[in-house]
Amino acid sequence: MLLMGRTKDASLRIASLLLACALAVPALVFPHSAFAQQILVMVQGSPITSFDVSQRIKLAQLTERRALNSKQALDELVDERLKVFTAERYGITMDTADLNKMYASMGARTGRTPEQLTQGLAQAGIEARLLKDKMRADNVWNNYVRGRFSSTTTVRDGDIFAALGAKGEDATKAQRTTEYTIRQIVLVVSRTAPPATRSQRMAEAGALRKNFTDCEAGTATARAMRETVVRDPVIRTSADMSAPLRKLMDETPIGQMTPPEVTQAGIEMVAICNRREVVGESAQKREIRNELQTKQFDDLSRRLLSEARKSAMIVYR
Q1: Torsion of CA 124, 62, 104, 88, to 10 degrees
Q2: pLDDT in tens, 162-213
Q3: How far apart are CA 94 and CA 113, in angstroms?
Q4: 116: domain range?
Q5: Are residue 91 and residue 222 in the same domain, yes or no?
Q6: Which of 127-131, 160-164, 259-263 has the lowest mean pLDDT?
Q7: pLDDT band of 29, cuts 50, 70, 90
Q8: Count of other CB atoms within 10 angstroms of residue 79
Q9: C-alpha distance from residue 92 to each of 142, 144, 304 (Å)
Q10: Exposed e or buried b for every residue in 273-312, given b needs 16+ CB within 10 A?
Q11: How far apart are CA 247 and CA 314, in angstroms?
């Protein structure tokens, strides 16, 4: 996580300033490349320096809260170079424009522009280039492994049932899922509406929910309300929902609505019109399948990376 609070940001800025002051005089005497960039290893002709290692240690601490020693950081950088080299051999690349879009999306998730993200990294003593290199390597490698994954791995039902049994789950229940018939009701509120208007609409939503006892009569009442949208019924299964949403849907009686929720459209609620158990893949079964697929993917990734190491030219200095 790149946003670490005002106190942490302030300390990073102070540390950055102190570091700049400490290196200001030596920098006049020693070239930066000689002073801080001793080559440690060459991977397919691409150098990894002591500066790269120090940057990876800082990056892991800042973005993943992982503490790496120098050997671990160096090993990760070697793997990173191998990932890019191997993927490129199979024509899998990532152009700069796509990389910059991914970098911008990362910044947006933390409420920062790309420039602000770069500045935040700089305050922690990290060059944005190092983060972008890691992003590129992860992207091309995942695409490479995914291409090999589909043809070499599979998850059988027998594997899933065995895993369910190991966790004490009932394999019979894994063959059934809950099907919900729902209707979404939205009390429209403009984004520019004053707080008083929003509060009034929330009160209207609460009153509608209190008097809502079945979908047919309740939706008719909702349609008669001003600026209210009643969506057509849809069917959702529990396997397609997150655990918190499944819990909410199961705890809401048939013919009633979920609590009002403020969204960009206004005040939204969901009416549970029907709920039944049907034959199908349960949420537990799908979760186990995903776990097994992830494990197979990770195992294949490690094997392919190990093969890449054996065939690559890696020269330690």
Answers
A1: 110
A2: 777 777 776 666 667 889 999 999 999 998 889 999 999 999 999 999 999 9
A3: 21
A4: 6-150
A5: no
A6: 160-164
A7: very low
A8: 17
A9: 10, 7, 15
A10: bebeeeeebbbbbbebbeebeeebbeebbeebbeebeeee
A11: 52
Distances, alpha carbon 241 to alpha carbons 58, 245, 261, 268, in Å:
37, 6, 17, 18
Does residue 84 belong to any structural domain of this protein? yes
Q: Residue 32: is its pLDDT beyond 60?
A: no
Q: What is the pTM of this model?
A: 0.58
Q: Is residue 259 part of a domain?
A: yes
- How is residue 308 written in tokens? 């890449």
Question: Given a cut of 90, is residue 8 above it in pLDDT?
Answer: no
The pair of structure tokens assigned to 147 is: 């291409």
Task: Round to whole Å and give the CA distance between 33 and 39.
Answer: 10
Residue 180 sits in a domain whose CATH number is 3.10.50.40
Alpha-carbon separation of residue 60 from 77, 82, 120, 149, 179 (angstroms): 12, 19, 15, 27, 43
**Distances in whole angstroms, Cα of residue 271 to Cα of each of 186, 207, 211, 222, 224:** 11, 14, 12, 11, 16
Number of structural domains found in the chain: 2
